[in-house]
Amino acid sequence: MLKITYLSHSAFLFDDGTTRLVIDPFLTNNPNAPVKADDVQVNYVILTHAHGDHLGDALAIAKKNKATVIAVNELANYAASKGVNAHNMHIGGGFNFPFGRVKFTIAHHGSSTPEGEYMGEPAGVVITMGGKSVYHAGDTGLFMDMKLIGAVTPLDAALLPIGDNFTMGIDDAVRASDMLNAKLTIPMHYNTWPVIEADPEEFAQKTRDRGMDVRVMKFGESITL
Ligand code: NI
Ligand code: MN
Questions:
Q1: How far is the centre of ligand 2, averaged over its atoms, from the C-alpha of 202 (Å)?
Q2: Does residue 179 form part of some domain?
Q3: Which CATH number belongs to the domain containing residue 157 in this structure?
Q4: Number of domains making up the chain
Q5: What are the 10-residue block averages of pLDDT along the chain, 225 residues in total?
Q6: Distance, CA 166 to ligand 1 centroid (Å)?
């Protein structure tokens, strides 16, 4: 069992009944955030890259909860330099944590902090927890190796950006869902600001037309895989 809660933008909470983790917790200054950073209780924080709309409240949440930040080496070192526990990984590597497995994958994007310091490569991540495997694409353009990600780990769900401008737009995300072949596709990274306005129902319809199962999650909504 894996319960997934959508905290808007690219932020998701995963809960297997024992361990709770949050991915890319951008809540403060996020107009769609359904919860405050102070109310997030987790054991781990996973980061795909250092941009402000992903790093977000990660350090504050990690400090308050004594949670471990899991990220690629450069970003994990940055987190550790700010006084939080960190587990350094890198793209292509997986690690078996007490709650399950985390494996970082490629993403075509950037990864500078809000101060402009570069934090290594941006990433996507495959998380296996509660007997389910979920791919969070981070911020990325479309790439052919998504086919490989879905082949290496059969996916119960894929979380894909659809907002365009900084990441894949709807049509590229539809192609991505085809290649990943996850049992369920969930759109993210849209409607936070005007520049990434997108209609998730258009994405859902186009993806369903290809025979894939889609779920448009409301901000704050939970589903159980
Ligand atoms: Ni980004
Ligand atoms: Mn972003």
A1: 21
A2: yes
A3: 3.60.15.10
A4: 1
A5: 98 98 98 98 98 98 98 98 98 98 98 96 98 98 98 98 98 98 98 98 98 98 98
A6: 7
